[in-house]
Design goal:
The chain is α/β, with parallel strands linked by helices. The protein folds into 3 domains: 47 residues, 434 Repressor (Amino-terminal Domain) (Orthogonal Bundle); 136 residues, Response regulator (Rossmann fold); 136 residues, Rossmann fold (3-Layer(aba) Sandwich). The chain is built from 13 helices and 12 strands. Helix 9 links the parallel strand 6 and strand 7. Helix 5 crosses helix 13. This is Ribose operon repressor.
Length: 356
């Protein structure tokens, strides 16, 4: 005996037409809000829409995409979803798309260049109408996105400045952030300040260091090189924690005393706190610690981490808004994306810093 074929529960336009008593073509015009629908009587529209609602009719988005040659999707390519830097940016992207007809296709490249290239190709094949790249602190590959400009795909990078490659970027003012972090520790009376910088090749690290140096120069403060450490290059964004532990242990072994520590980012700062506590130092009693980013774990640790907050959710919303304006108005000035927007950081004081 041959197996019975499962009956489909999918409600079609023909089903709505049968229930409402109108032709499938009239039903299609009304439900798809086609230009001809303005010639359909209001009572007819009401009857068709009620029948569709009662039957549980859902439009076939795939078929509509084929007809309109529009996918109504936005590609979101991230480099490691485990990186807490990404969390709030993704929230901003999703909340901005929530009230629109566009769906995000989120793909995680796991910090692999080859996987990034493969996912980028897949998103192009699926005809995404725009692309948002959430770049963590390992991302330095501007060249991989250059072809997108040639294909006129609206693309925005969040967290890295690729404006010199003519790719729209949404970033925080890292120079101002480094300056503000140093200013905070200095205002608390600290004069023996240790600094853990980010990897040498990382643009954000150099900009934050520039801000630190700028404050020092303006206040005639000498940055002691014995109190400066550099995070190594790494393939794992969470390695900042281990890097913070190792760099702080090295500082503690050195002859350079310090009463405050300025870390490259929050994970590095959390690693520094771990190393200080394990060595018998209290935070902030023996050493104040400040981070950068305000990732979710910063508020949950003990003590709560003082940090320089990046407006990450807002960065995600801005990037998404740019892409939506470009895809919804391809023949208008909105299709021309701004080269870059730099957002101001904010000092967020918690319990990990105090006066000397």
């Amino acid at each position: 005996m041959s197996p019975l074929k499962a009956k489909s529960n999918h409600v079609t336009i023909v089903d709505v037409a049968t229930t409402s008593g109108f032709s499938p073509s009239t039903v299609s015009i009304v439900l798809n809000e086609a230009p001809l629908s303005r010639y359909v009587a209001a009572k007819t529209k009401e009857r068709i829409r009620k029948a569709a609602k009662d039957l549980g009719y859902r439009p076939d988005a795939f078929a509509r995409s084929l007809r309109n040659r529009r996918s109504h999707t936005v590609g979101v390519l991230i480099f490691d979803i485990s990186d807490p830097f990404c969390t709030l940016i993704l929230q901003g992207i999703e909340r901005c798309l929530d009230s629109t007809a566009y769906l995000p296709i989120i793909m995680d490249a796991h910090n692999e260049k080859k996987q990034f290239e493969g996912y980028l190709e897949m998103l192009m094949e699926r005809r995404v109408e725009g692309l948002i790249v959430v770049a963590n602190w390992l991302f330095e590959e501007g060249g991989l996105l250059l072809n997108l400009r040639r294909n006129n795909l609206p693309t925005v990078v969040v967290g890295r400045d690729l404006s010199t490659d003519l790719i729209s970027s949404v970033v925080v003012d890292n120079v101002a952030g480094g300056y503000t972090a140093m200013e905070h520790l200095y205002s608390l009376g600290h004069r023996k300040i240790a600094v853990i910088r980010g990897p040498e090749k990382l643009g954000d690290s150099n900009l934050r260091w520039q801000g630190i140096q700028q404050f020092a120069a303006e206040h005639n403060y000498q940055l002691d090189p014995r109190r400066v450490r550099l995070l190594p290059e790494a393939l794992d964004p969470t390695s900042g924690f281990e890097g913070g532990v190792a760099a702080t242990e090295d500082l503690l072994r050195s002859a350079a005393d310090f009463t405050a520590l300025l870390a490259f980012d929050d994970l590095t700062a959390l690693g520094a706190i771990r190393a200080l506590i394990l060595s018998g130092r209290s935070v902030p009693g023996d050493c104040s610690v400040i981070g950068f980013d305000d990732v979710p774990p910063a508020a949950f640790c003990t003590p709560g981490l003082t940090t320089i907050r990046q407006p990450m959710e807002e960065m995600g919303r801005i990037a998404t808004g740019w892409v939506l304006r470009a895809v919804q108005g391809p023949d208008t000035e909105d299709a021309i994306l701004p080269p870059m927007q730099i957002l101001s950081p904010q000092l967020l004081i918690r319990e990990s810093t105090s006066r000397v």
